[in-house]
Amino acid sequence: GGMFEHLRDESLAGLEELDFPGLAIGGVSVGEPKEEMMRVLEHVGPRLPANKPHYLMGVGTPEDLVEGVANGIDMFDCVMPTRNARNGWIFTRFGDVKIKNARYKDDEAPIDETCGCYACRNFSRAYLHHLWRTGEILGARLNTIHNLHYYLQIMQEMRDALDQDRFPEWRAQFARERARGV
Questions:
Q1: What's the pTM value of the predicted model, to 2 decimals?
Q2: What are the beta bridge partners of residue 75?
């Protein structure tokens, strides 16, 4: 159905008749503006059958995951955490770190002080900046370890918040923390 709600409704009705064990939602992150993607997701989400898993294809910023879960999505896949890590872009609770930027040259803090991943426990932003500048592959690996850990962590936090009936509060806190910046 692309960006057309009536076509999404028609497609969903046909899929429900086929009684698949789960549903995949695609075609919302292939160049469309973010607002359009969210509009379609907000339309489709409440119409998805509650007793089946919902998979959103190719969508992957931390904010996209949170908004997806808010609209009934259970699973995601995206190259973003690994591709961005290889390019020196690291996601954190308090915004994104672009490790190649000179501001990290002498920064002895971990990537994210709230993170317990191997990279955050053992290496500073300054060291990761050095690895980036020298082209050392270890930098991309450590960035990837962190980004994947961060994604797993926010998914776990969302599951916990849903289980404890406090997802709206968690979602608001997530948005505040990400907007704060590093």
A1: 0.91
A2: 55
